[in-house]
Amino acid sequence: MREAYFETFRPLGMLHPSHSSREAIFSKDQDPVKFQGLGAELNTEDAYRKALHEAHETPQYEILVQHPALRNFVRHLTGWEKEFLLPRTMLRRNVPGAAATVTHYDKIFLRGGSADFLTAWVPIAAINYGTNISQPGDCPLHGGGLAYLSNSPSLGNATETSFSTAAACLPPSERVSAFNTNMAAFGALAQNAAEYAANEGEGRKWLVADYKAGDVVFHDQYMIHCVVRNEDKEGRIRLSTDLRFVEEGGDWDRRWGKAWSVEDRL
Questions:
Q1: For residues 43 and 31, what is the distance between their CA atoms, to the nearest angstrom?
Q2: Contact 218/132 with Cβ under 8 angstroms?
Q3: Which of 16, 23, 52 is nearest to 36 (CA)?
Q4: CA-CA 20 to 30 A from 189: which of 17, 69, 159, 209?
């Protein structure tokens, strides 16, 4: 899966020519801003956007999101009889030196449904199971993984209540938008994660982990999180996917009923 994704972008010069697509070492000759991932300002070149679309349509990616072990665990964790994966999934990469995903909680982007949903964050690797050696898909502390604000679902829920109250007078389509007049750029709660934790977070701590190939992290729709800047010494690009699950039959946000697209502006 990792190799298939980065092969899509190799013709655009993103990868170091001396390394494999599986390793995905960023080319030092390129500007990181040009290759920022979803959640930041995207490159407007047609070839780049075409590659983004194609990456979401590979057979390898479909196998990953339908993996029985993943789907079985979602049911086990939630107690749902049957889960439903929202069709709009998101492949995200974190290029060394590029802007990272800002502080947010996921409900900001899925306000159009009343059902609770569960997010799975999946680092994508090409691995040899049973070894302790760092693999191309591992995401160590400085590799650009997720950071979670401790005990933050209640804060996220309260914040969303405030946003909903402020947006009550807006048209329905604006009310559910992550980018309405009450929201900051990219739907962010803050640009500075440390300041947010100290102030709005009332001293809560940011929690990070040394993610390994094969890990999956599940979080609540109001869990506040952000992405750590990728400072991998080898220049390795982090790749992951965001998957949102609801209980089958639940009222989910129908804007997420199609595969990811640059044009959907969600």
A1: 11
A2: no
A3: 52
A4: 209
Q: What is the pLDDT of residues 33-81, one digit of tens each?
A: 888 878 777 777 888 888 888 888 889 899 999 999 999 999 999 999 9
**In this structure, are residues 225 and 201 in contact, taking their beta carbons and an 8 Å threshold?**
no
Each residue's pLDDT tens digit, 208-242: 988 887 889 999 999 999 999 999 989 999 999 99
How is residue 154 annotated by DSSP?
H
Hey, is 24 helix, strand or coil? coil
Relative to beta strand 90-94, strand 206-207 is unpaired
> Residues in the chain, how many?
266
What is the reported pTM? 0.91
Judged by DSSP in three states, 85 sits in strand
The backbone torsions φ and ψ at residue 226, rounded to the nearest 5 degrees and listed phi first, read: -155, 180
d(CA 37, CA 251): 29
pLDDT at 255: 96
Query: Is 124 in contact with 5 (CB distance < 8 Å)?
Result: yes
Q: Which of 61, 73, 161 is nearest to 111 (CA)?
A: 161
The band of 138, judged by pLDDT with boundaries at 50, 70 and 90, is low
Q: How far apart are CA 45 and CA 9, in angstroms?
A: 13
Residue type, 124: I
**pLDDT tens column, 178-196:** 999 999 988 999 989 999 9
* Residue 219 contacts residue 145 (beta carbons within 8 Å): no
- Specify the DSSP class assigned to residue 211: B
